Amino acid sequence: MPREGVKPIPHQEILRNEEIGQIVKAGALVGINKIRLTGGEPLVRKGLQDLIGLIHETPGIDDIALTTNGILLPGMAAQLKSAGVNRLNISLDTLKPRRYEEVTRLGKFSQAWKGIETALELGFHPVKLNVVAIRGFNDDEILELTALSFKYPLHVRFIEVMPIGVSDAWASYRHIPVFEIKEIIEQGLGKLQEVRKLVGNGPAQYYRQDGMQGSVGFISPVSDHFCGRCNRLRLTAEGKLRPCLYSSNEIDLKTPLRNSAGEMELAKLFAQAIKIKPVRHNIAGGWQDKDRVMSQIGG
């Protein structure tokens, strides 16, 4: 997040829960069956539990996941589970409290860790930790972070840093390719054995070692893109349907929805978005959306 924060969006420009519910119903008509709530930080949204309930009641939707920094999870995890959330991804780039405050701007590591413990206690499965590997920042913690999968039933996923809304030169300098992360783990902890994908059908490749309660995963959007396997669409808070995170192409759903479009009309727009998904992203060409950064789109 920018140190100065992000420009507020007028409340009337943001989709209401009921509008998101209508869009989800339209998506289900074209075969969408998994929904992930992300952000920014989804747990700060007012009425989130009600929104999850609307999605959970939608015919055809059989899986609801949520990505969070975990800070608000201790007080909300039970309600999220009862509302219908199946799986959690929790962002955790470091185990060092001071570093955690630096990368999150104001977060407390102790709160995030309590959120992880609460998720495990309540039986969310799987619980995945998202670690963005950054050279010179947390690369000295790769083995320590991997070791969490031995001590707990956690699935630790290392993600390559991407030049999204930051200097391309910075991202290039800080980038650690997946093969290098894997080498560090194998040199320190021994050979990894590839395993089948976990629930969720995401882009990570998972590995295990004897004694692991969880697993270690790798996501390589830069060094070995997975565009050919990507089946995701993103809906922004302002009602734009985005076929590819790294492309500025969007389809407006809010305007037709507020002009009384029915579910079948919205379903046609979903089909249109699917048809224009690019063959692959263009990270090499630099970040295309000059008006927004990742937190304004949804990771």
Automatic annotation (TrEMBL):
Is this entry keyworded RNA-binding? no
Q: Pfam families per the record? A: Mob_synth_C, Radical_SAM
Domain Radical SAM core: residue ranges? 1-203
The record's annotation in InterPro entries points to: Aldolase_TIM, MoaA, MoaA_twitch, MoCo_biosynth_MoaA/MoaC, rSAM, rSAM_sf
Q: Which CDD domains match?
A: Radical_SAM, Twitch_MoaA
Question: Which terms are listed as keywords in the entry?
Answer: GTP-binding, Iron, Iron-sulfur, Metal-binding, Molybdenum cofactor biosynthesis, Nucleotide-binding, S-adenosyl-L-methionine
Any one GO MF annotation of this record: GTP binding
Q: Please verify whether the record's keywords include Metal-binding.
A: yes
Q: Which GO terms describe its biological process?
A: Mo-molybdopterin cofactor biosynthetic process
* Protein's name in the database: Molybdenum cofactor biosynthesis protein MoaA
Q: What is the lineage of its organism?
A: Bacteria, Bacillati, Bacillota, Clostridia, Eubacteriales
